[in-house]
Amino acid sequence: MFNKILIANRGEIACRVIKSARKMGISTVAIYSDADRQALHVQMADEAIHIGPSPANQSYIVIDKVMDAIRQSGAQAVHPGYGFLSENSKFAEALEAEGIAFVGPPKGAIEAMGDKITSKKIAQEAGVSTVPGYMGLIADADEAVKISGEIGYPVMIKASAGGGGKGMRIAWTDEEAREGFQSSKNEAASSFGDDRIFIEKFVTQPRHIEIQVLCDSHGNGVYLGERECSIQRRNQKVVEEAPSPFLDETTRRAMGEQAVALAQAVGYTSAGTVEFIVDGDKNFYFLEMNTRLQVEHPVTELITGIDLVEQMIRVANGEKLPFKQDDIKLNGWAIENRLYAEDPYRGFLPSIGRLTRYRPPAEVAEDSHVVRNDTGVYEGGEISMYYDPMIAKLCTWAPTRAEAIERMRVALDSFEVEGIGHNLPFLSAVMDHPIFVAGDMTTAFIEEQYPEGFDGVELPEPELRRIAAACAAMHRVAEIRRTRVSGRMDNHERKVGIDWIVSLQGQRYETAIAADHDGSTVTFGDGHEMRVSSDWTPGDQLATLTVEGSPLVLKVGKISGGFRIRSRGADIKVHVRTPRQAELADLMPEKVAPDTSKMLLCPMPGLIVKVDVAVGDEVQEGQALCTVEAMKMENILRAERKGMVSRINAAAGDSLAVDDVIMEFE
Amino acid sequence: MKDILTVLNDRRAAARLGGGQKRIDAQHARGKLTARERIDLLLDEDSFEEFDMFVGHRCTDFGMEQQRPYGDGVVTGWGTINGRMVYVFSQDFTVLGGSVSETHARKICKIMDMAVENGAPIIGINDSGGARIQEGVDSLAGYGEVFQRNIMASGVVPQISVIMGPCAGGAVYSPAMTDFIFMVKDTSYMFVTGPDVVKTVTNEVVTAEELGGASTHTRKSSVADAAFENDVEALAEVRRLVDFLPLNNQAKPPVRPFFDEPGRVETSLDTLVPENANSPYDMKELILKIADEADFYEIQEDFAKNIITGFIRLEGRTVGVVANQPMVLAGCLDIDSSRKAARFVRFCDAFEIPILTLVDVPGFLPGTGQEYGGVIKHGAKLLYAYGEATVPKVTVITRKAYGGAYVVMASKHLRSDFNYAWPTSEIAVMGAKGATEIIHRADLGDPEKIAKHTADYEARFANPFVAAERGFIDEVIQPRSTRMRVSRAFASLRNKSVKMPWKKHDNIPL
Hints:
Chain B: Residues 264-504 form the CoA carboxyltransferase C-terminal domain. The complex is a heterodimer of chains A (666) and B (510). Chain A has 666 residues and is an alpha+beta fold. In chain A, strand 7 and strand 8 (166-171) form a beta hairpin. The longest helix of chain A has 22 residues, at 461-482. Chain A is globular and about 90 Å long. The N and C termini of chain A lie far apart (72 Å). The relative contact order of chain A is 0.07. Chain B has 510 residues and is of the alpha/beta class. Chain B is built from 19 helices and 17 strands. In chain B, the strands form three sheets. In chain B, strands 10, 11, 12, 13, 14, 15, 16 and 17 form an eight-stranded mixed sheet that branches. In chain B, strands 1-2-3-4-5-7-9 form a seven-stranded mixed sheet, sandwiched between helices. Chain B has a two-stranded parallel ribbon with strand order 6-8. Chain B is elongated and about 95 Å long. The termini of chain B are far apart. In chain B, 52% of the residues are buried. At the A-B interface, helix 17 of A face helix 3 and helix 10 of B.
C-alpha cells in the first residue's frame, strides 16, 4: 500500500479523501492556494503545500504546480477528487510519466468518455441504450417526418448550433414534425447563421438516474446501485438519493449491467458513474459517463456500506475488488442535501463572507439511522468567491425512505449557518414538498415548482401550533429568569402568569401553560393540549424540543417581545404576549414596508467606489448608477427603469450594509 | 360606607377615562396608546401605585375653571419592572393635550423627589402639546422645577425618557438632561422650534418628522439613543434596559441568573481579524461572542457607527462596552464617536457599571471638517471620561492601537485595570508606512529602501510585544479565550475601590 497520498483538490472532497486515507494508515498531503491558507483540508492533512494564487486557473488546475507539489512531498499516489484535474487526461499522463499512481481510471478511459459523441458511439457499440436520434443532415421536411416516425414520437427537433431553447421544437405528430422542422430551420438560420437540424427522441417526464460502477485492473467490475439526482437547479444537483424511488429491480439490473459493460468496454478501472436519463415508462438512455468520484457518492456508500474512496485507492494500488456483484446488497435509504452558499431569497446568488456560525448537526452512525456531514468549512472560516459555492453535503440514512426524509428534516433544522446566505430553507422546503415526498420528481421539479424563485415557506397549521406551544413555553422560562434579577423588592416580586397569546404567521393562539419539573403542558384556547419538554435555556440559539412526543428543532433568535424562529424552511417572527400586552399590541398600526421600487438598495455589504449620477439626473433603464465594491469585486448597479434621481444617500467611500438605500428616484 | 366606596370607584373610573372615550379613540387612531395603557406595558402587571389621581389645576383664566379633569394630564406613581422599583410619569395627551400646568409639573416633581430619596430610577413618558398657555408663567415655572430636579437626580438615579408623541419647545430640555432618550418611529418628534417658526424665521420648509422625528434624532442629531417601531416595542425595550441598570448610584448593577459558560471558548475568534491589515471585520461579532447569551443592548446604534456602545452581561452582571468598529471609517475616532462614547463612559462610571473597551483604532479622523468642528475638545471628552472613570476597566486591543487614539481608548495610562492584547495587535505611534516616511524622509525617493524600512518598522512595532515589555499590556491573550479572560478580570475587580480627590465638580471640556 502507498505510504503517502496527495489530494489534488480542496474543500469537502479533499477532507473526505483525507478521512479514508487516514483510516487506511496512509499519510496525506494537501495543496492549497492563497485563499485556502487556513482551509479545513489544510488543517486536516499531515502536510500541506502552497501552490499559488487564489484563482483555480493559477493554482489547483495548473498541472505543473501540482506536479511540483507531488515531487516535493514524495507522494506515491494522487487522488484528484472531482472537478479540477479529475478528468484531465494530460494530468493522468503526467503522473504516469513519473510513476505516480493516479487514483482514477486510465487516461484512455478518460479520453474515451470525455467526448460526448465518441462516448455515445462507444456506448451504442457496448449495447448501452442511448437516446434514439438521427445525427446526419436532414434534407427536407419529408425526410424529417420519416426520421421522426422511425424514432417514435414525441421527438425533439434541434438546431445543431442551438442553445437556450432557440431553434428547438417538440413534435408529437407528423404534422408537428413537418412544421417544427421548418420553423426550427428558419430560426436556426436567423439566430445562428447555421440551419443544420437534427432530431432525437424527446424524453418525457425525464429523471436523472445514475449508476455507480467500480472496476479493478483485473477485469472485475460491479455496479453499486443507482442514485436519483433529478432535483437540480440549472443542471446543478441539489438533492440526491439512493436508491431511486422510481426504479424496479429489473430496470436497476439492466441499467447496472449496461453500465458495467460500458466501463469494461473502455478498460475502466476505479470508481465511475454512468448517467442515464429515464422517462416516465422507465425507458432509460445513456447520457454520459463521469470518470471520477461523484459529489453525491456518499448516498451509495450509505446503502452499500462500501467506502468508495478506500476502494479507489486499493484499485489504484493494483488490488482486486474484495466483492462480486452478488455480494452487493442495497440496504435502506440514503438522502443527500447539498448546502450551497447561495441566497435562495436573492435568486440563489452566490454569497460570500465569514461564517460567523457554522454548527452542523451531530453526526450519528447507528443501526436506526445515520447522519453524515461531509464538509470543508468551519466556524470562523471564510467563504471566498474563487471556488464552488457548495460548502457541505448533509446525508441521512434510515431503513425506509420516509424515515430518511424525516431524519433529514430534523438534521436541516439543526444545522446552524450564519454570516452568509445559504440554501438551508430551500432544502427544508424540498424535503416537505409533496412531489418529493411521493418520489414523483423529474428534472424539471425546481423549475416547475418554484417558477418565481423561492420566497420562503408558509408553515401548515399543525406545525404552527407546535411552534406556538414551544415558543410559549420558552418565553415563560425566559420571563421567569428575568424576575430572578437582584435588587427586587422583597415580597413584591413579579409573578409570571400562565396565560400567553402567541402570534405567528398571521395566526393567533391563546395558550395556558402548566409547568412541572420535566416540561410543560400547553393548553390551547380550543382545549387542545400539547406536552412540551426541552432543555432550552435563554440564549440558546438552537432549541431541541419534544412536542407531543416528536422532535421539534428550532433556530431561535431574539426579537422584541418574542422570537425569530427558523424551522422547516420558514423564517417567522413569533410574539408571545400576556393577554393585556396582546390587547394593546392589537391597537398598533400595521406598518407598511416602504416602497423600495423607487429606491436603489445596496445588494450586498460593500464599499461605494463611485456614484455615477447626481440629484436631478434623468436615468435610463440599464444606466450605471454607482459602483459597489464587495470582496474586491466591483459591482455596477444599474437603473431598473427610467426615472429621475431625487436623492442620493451615499457617497464614494461609504461602506453600506445590505438593503441600505443608496439613492431614491421620483 | 357603601356609598362612599361607590363615590370613590366612580371618581377613579372617571380619572381612568382621562380625556374621555372619544379622545382615547383618537389617540389609538394615531397609532398611540394612552398614558395608562403605556404604564400597563412598562410595569409588571398590577404593580402600579398611583399618586395624585385627583389632582386638578387651579387656573381660572380663559374659562379654564370650566374644565378641571382629574389628574391634570399626567399619570404618576411607582411600580416594578421585574420586581425592581421604578418611578414613572406618563403624560396623557387625551387630557388637555397633555399640556404642562403648574399642578401637572408638581405631580412630576413629587415622584422625582421620591425617586431620589428612595433610590429608584425615573422613567418619563412624554406625550405633551407643551406649556399650558392659559397658565402663562406658572407653566414655565413648572418646567423649571422639573428641569432642576432632572439636574439634581442626574448621576443619583438613572433617568429614562420615552418620547411617544410631541415634545416641543422648552419641554425638550427635561428629556435632554436624562440619561437615555427613546423615541417611537412615525409618532414622536422633538424640537426646540417647530416647522412653522422655522419657516417664518429661516424660510426653510421642513416637516415635523424631518425636523425632529425618530430618524433625525437617532441618525443625525444623536439626541435620541434608539427608536422603536411602536409603543409596545418601545416599552418592552425600556424594560429590557432597566434590567441592565442599577437602581441608584449606591447600588451595585443588577445580577441575573445566566445560562452561559464563563469559560466558553470561541475558536472562530482566532480568525476574526483578517490577514490583510486593511480589511474590515465586524466588531459586533466579538461583542456578541464575549457577552452572556449573545445579549447586547446597543445604545445609539445608528449614530457615529465607527464606535459601538452598549450593555452586555458577564456572569450575569452588567458591563458597558465601548468598541471601535473597523467596518465604518476604519473605526477611527472623530467628533461624533468621541462624544457618543464619552457620554456612555460617564454614564457607566456614574452608576458603577464596569467598562469593557475593545480597541481597533487607526487614529483620529483628519481634516478641516474635524478641526473646525473642534475635534480637539470633543476628542478630549472621551480621554477625560476614561481617565476620570473609577469603575473596573478592562481593555482588549484586537488590532490597531495607533497614536493618541491608543492612549484615549482606555489605555494603561488612563488607569485601566486590565489591558489585554491579541497577538494581531499593533501598538504604535502610527502605521508602518506613515512612520517610515517620517523617520526615513531622506530615503523617500528610493522605494526599495522605503520598503525595507517599512518592513523593519513592522517587525519592530506592528505587534503587542513592545508594549507588553513596558507593562502597558498586561498579557497577550488568545482571541478564542477572550470571554474567559475578560470575565475573570472583571470577577477580580468586584471590590475595586478608588477615591478621587475632593472637588466641587470637574470641568470636563464640554
